[in-house]
Amino acid sequence: MFVDQAQIYVTAGNGGHGGMSFRREKYVPNGGPDGGNGGRGGNVIVQADNGLRTLLAFKYRKKYKAESGGNGTGGRSTGKSGEDLLIKVPVGTVVKDKTTGRILCDLSEDGESCIVAQGGRGGLGNMNFSTSTRQAPRFAQGGVKGQERTLVLELKLLADVGLLGFPNVGKSTFLSMVTAAKPKIANYHFTTIVPNLGVVAWKDYDPFVIADIPGIIEGAHEGTGLGIQFLRHVERTKLLIHMLDASGSEGRDPLADFKAINEELKEYNERLAQRMQVVALNKTDLIADPEELELLVSEFEAMGYEVFPISAATGKGIDALLSRVIQLLDEIGEVEPIFEVEADEDVVYKADFDEEPFTVHKDGNVYVVEGDFERLINSVNFEDFDSIGYFQRVLKDKGIFKKLEEMGIQDEDTVRLQDIEFEYFK
């Protein structure tokens, strides 16, 4: 089953908590603090793999979590770093952040990878908080939570040539003639419901990959029919073969069809519409009047396009078309991508608690402070005076006390911060 889009939820590993311990040996009864730092949480990494062809596996498994870092221990021992989680996807996968819509990475080569969620930093052990006036700190820093995000995976076929055209113009027949692909062929619309991919090994030339792109009709860029699902597959192509039914066997006007599809490409992406195109006028075996074909060819040539009359059913004209396509691919070389991969600044964590957002509201007589304070609470030993002093300094530096005072808090009023309640004193 061909699946070209999936959504997954990834969570990087949390950083380990810093250790809170003191050196205790037989002949060192009053040793100093020796709690080690917490280990780094594992990253979530997406990597392209040539052995995969579809995103089907992600339809059954939706959540992925990297390993968290180990806690610091005595003897200044740093906790073990969490193992990175490697998620393999097919070559040609584009990874997007669902919330922002930004492209995080475009994995177009085998083995190419990117970090999509960074593991949290480990917290500092109590050995880091020892000073000349505080020689026995009884608190340590909590680890940072790993990054979480919902990803959208989109597979874009890595084809050199895209085969465009309305349904039933003979694209699948053409593909079956020039490649080993076995597309379903029948005389009704929307025969092809998935992109067909094949390798063209023509004579002694270097082989190239061609993709039959189905579902492009009027309104495709707005999601009509199957258009949006398939337009993404023509984004990487160097050259487009635009196939038309020159015979008008179904009452269609090939010139009007050509303009309609190009308008869809332009609406979808301006740069995609600028890709080089050659015109393949198919079903010429059904045209009785040669002058009718000559007139049609001259109309396209007047628009600046190279035109190749062919018959996919009989093979007529295919040799000339493929020979020219191979020559053009060599001349075109590499092409610029039509979309930009955006730098993801969100994977860089904030330096400390003072940059974390918070809100304050009253619940009856209790002032409730809301925000992400898990790391701060994990850093505090509420039975130790120095640790409580550290807790108060963080709240002050963060501006929480100032906000409470603006709201009219008085001494002995109750403040709730997650599961912690304490009385306020100025």
Automatic annotation (TrEMBL):
Domain spans labelled OBG-type G: 159-330
Name of protein: GTPase Obg
Its domain of life?
Bacteria
Q: Domain OCT, which positions?
A: 350-426
Task: Name the InterPro entries for this protein.
Answer: G_OBG (IPR031167), GTP-bd (IPR006073), GTP-bd_Obg/CgtA (IPR014100), GTP-bd_prot_GTP1/OBG_C_sf (IPR036346), GTP1-OBG_CS (IPR006074), GTP1_OBG_dom (IPR006169), GTP1_OBG_dom_sf (IPR036726), OBG_GTPase (IPR045086)
Residues holding GTP: 165-172, 190-194, 212-215, 282-285, 311-313
- In the Enzyme Commission scheme, what number(s) does this protein have? 3.6.5.-
- Annotated Mg(2+) binding lies at 172, 192
State how it assembles.
Answer: Monomer.
Question: What Pfam families does this protein's entry cite?
Answer: DUF1967 (PF09269), GTP1_OBG (PF01018), MMR_HSR1 (PF01926)
The primary gene name is obgE
Cofactors: Mg(2+)
Instruction: Give the enzyme's main class according to its UniProt record, as a single word.
Output: hydrolase
CDD domains attached to this UniProt entry: Obg
Keywords attached to this entry: Cytoplasm, GTP-binding, Hydrolase, Magnesium, Metal-binding, Nucleotide-binding
What are the Obg domain coordinates in residue numbering? 1-158
Protein family per UniProt: Belongs to the TRAFAC class OBG-HflX-like GTPase superfamily. OBG GTPase family.
Organism expressing this protein natively: Eubacterium limosum
What is its subcellular localisation? Cytoplasm
Q: What does this protein do?
A: An essential GTPase which binds GTP, GDP and possibly (p)ppGpp with moderate affinity, with high nucleotide exchange rates and a fairly low GTP hydrolysis rate. Plays a role in control of the cell cycle, stress response, ribosome biogenesis and in those bacteria that undergo differentiation, in morphogenesis control.
